[in-house]
Write a structure and sequence with these properties.
single chain; about 550 residues; mainly alpha; six-stranded mixed beta sheet
Length: about 550
């Protein structure tokens, strides 16, 4: 009797809803604790530059050294003395977006507002997406509850809360976290409208009006956040046909209404962006011996990164990511087969449409256009597949797994996600430019030249952002192929001006990489000869982050 009582209490204590609630709490806590725990990475500092409205004022370093602190002001709001200055700043932001940025304006406008309210620290800038991601967890619960009830909904929300890829982007000053919010909100609203369309009471009509508004706003906001949200609109259209084809025209009007809300920007801003943006950098075809194999690899890698690997993809070998993608695919395939055998065809169809259809659409576009864009940016362009794929997994846990094993299986899945996510934020080094700033601070009064073989503005701006404000360090930033000659010329003219040289040897100068390792080593030897003729090498250290963009060899030379 006592044994039965203990087992019963144990099951209640660790029931699926309670496990999920704990996981959601941990997911929210991880977001709060890690908002300022790491440096801005390359794209984040570009988002900050755009949000300040100062992108047009940025000037790429030339052939002569510049005062590094001059770049710090570009990462703050410009001086403003009235409403006219504020309007000018916002106008500059829009001009920057129209002049070459390939993304719509909503995310950057949100970040601009956040910058005004809370400043430009890492925690302040990331807090907006952190809050948005928490709202997304809530909307994912609503989506799951509509299909699976409370228990399935809260488990789906827990999966999203701890999903490694979404957790990373919840703390990334880019537009991908909001994108998932607009996707889950629109799907939830559509399902609610479909399920409630027959209720005619005034109370129901009031609620339907609210849900129509949510649907319209989420469609418009999604398109104004990321253009590839257009895939999601096609997904919603297919979902309408699948669930409510007899009333397709009503839902079609809603979809069209959401799109029409974006018309002013689409007719003006989008056309200018397409004319000015360098879109080839997002759609450069890879040289593949067998294009079909490359397309398949991109598909599998995107699946593996979004559902399991997360930001670890920046350091894992391609083969490892592909194997993870194969494993993920077969797990979801097994879930699909089991759910089909259980007769869960309607809900299974919803999960497959929301999870796999966007990925298949992107793959089809790549095949037709003979491009390989699906895997661009470690799969982040397809982050909208996460809720649907996790819904498939939730359906399997809820409908297929025997009840006596449900809690254990759910706990195991959540533990895997938690381990990957905690490992990402706890064991991966993310203090690259802090290390450079510390070197500068050690002898801050010495005339210092920071010499870097990269003109990439992500490198220049991150270096400036973490620079001690009282520093008078100069920066020589040059392409690798011209770096040795430029440095030699500078030192011949003004060698007495500097008592210290900090040489930042970038392993990945982004847009100006040398062709092969032999050229890299030859240029490195030239630089060493130039420096050794005027200075003494004091120390050398390697600094690195989570991707090749963050790898530098730092050498300090003194007279």
């Amino acid at each position: 009797m006592n044994t039965f009582f203990l087992k019963s209490n144990w099951k209640k204590l660790f029931s699926l809803p309670k496990l999920a609630a704990i996981a959601i709490f941990v997911g929210v806590l991880l977001r709060i604790l890690n908002m300022g725990s790491r440096e801005f990475w390359y794209d984040e500092v570009l988002s900050l530059l755009l949000a300040t409205g100062n992108k047009g004022a940025y000037s790429t370093p030339g052939d002569i050294p510049v005062v590094l602190t001059e770049y710090i002001s570009l990462l703050k709001l410009p001086p403003e003395s009235g409403i006219g200055d504020v309007i000018t700043t916002v106008r500059n932001l829009f001009n920057s977006l129209l002049g070459g940025e390939p993304h719509p304006p909503l995310f950057f406008l949100t970040q601009h507002l956040w910058l005004r309210l809370f400043g430009n620290s890492e925690a302040a800038m990331r807090s907006a997406n952190a809050l948005i991601s928490i709202a997304t967890i809530g909307s994912t619960y609503g989506l799951g509850k509509t299909i699976l009830g409370h228990r399935g909904g809260i488990f789906l929300a827990a999966l999203l809360a701890l999903n490694p890829f979404y957790l990373f982007h919840s703390l990334n000053v880019r537009m991908y976290a909001p994108l998932v919010l607009w996707a889950t909100l629109s799907a939830w609203a559509l399902l609610h409208l479909i399920h409630q369309r027959d209720q005619e009471s005034s109370h129901s009509r009031y609620h339907l009006l609210i849900w129509n508004g949510i649907f319209l706003v989420s469609i418009a906001a999604g398109l104004l956040t990321f253009y590839l949200y257009a895939y999601w609109i096609l997904v919603l259209a297919v979902l309408i046909i699948y669930l409510d084809r007899h009333n397709w025209w009503q839902h079609g009007l809603r979809l069209s209404g959401g799109i029409l809300l974006t018309t002013p920007w689409l007719l003006r801003g989008t056309i200018i962006q397409l004319r000015n943006a360098d879109l080839n950098r997002f759609s450069t075809a890879k040289k593949a011996v067998l294009p079909a194999l490359q397309h398949g690899q991109d598909f599998l890698q995107t699946l593996g990164i979004n559902l399991l690997v997360g930001d670890w993809a920046t350091v894992l070998p391609t083969l490892s990511i592909t194997i993870t993608g194969i494993l993920t695919f077969f797990i979801l395939l097994l879930c699909t087969i089991k759910l089909w055998q259980k007769g869960e065809k309607t809900n299974l169809g919803i999960a497959l449409i929301l999870g796999f259809l966007p990925l298949l659409l992107a793959l089809l576009v790549d095949i037709i256009s003979k491009k390989f864009t699906l895997g661009f940016g470690w799969g982040r362009t397809m982050i909208i597949i996460i809720p649907g794929c996790l819904l498939l997994l939730s359906l399997w846990v809820e409908k297929v797994v025997p009840q006596k094993w449900v809690n254990g299986v759910a706990a195991m899945i959540l533990a895997v996600y938690l381990t990957i996510s905690v490992g990402d934020f706890s064991f991966r080094h993310r203090s690259v430019f802090h290390a450079v700033a510390d070197l500068i601070s050690q002898d801050i009064n010495q005339p210092t030249l920071v010499a870097m073989n990269s003109k990439a503005w992500g490198h220049v701006l991150r270096l400036a952002y973490y620079l001690p404000p009282q520093s008078s360090a100069m920066l020589l930033s040059q392409h690798p192929a011209q770096f040795a000659a430029s440095l030699e010329q500078v030192l011949q003219q003004k060698s007495k001006k500097y008592s210290r040289i900090i040489w930042l040897d970038s392993f990945d100068p982004v847009w100006s990489r040398l062709k092969n390792e032999t050229d890299v080593e030859t240029e490195r030897q030239k630089i060493q000869q130039v420096l050794s003729s005027n200075f003494q090498l004091q120390k050398t250290q390697n600094i690195f982050g989570t991707m090749s963009l963050d790898q530098f060899q730092v050498s300090v030379y003194k007279k």
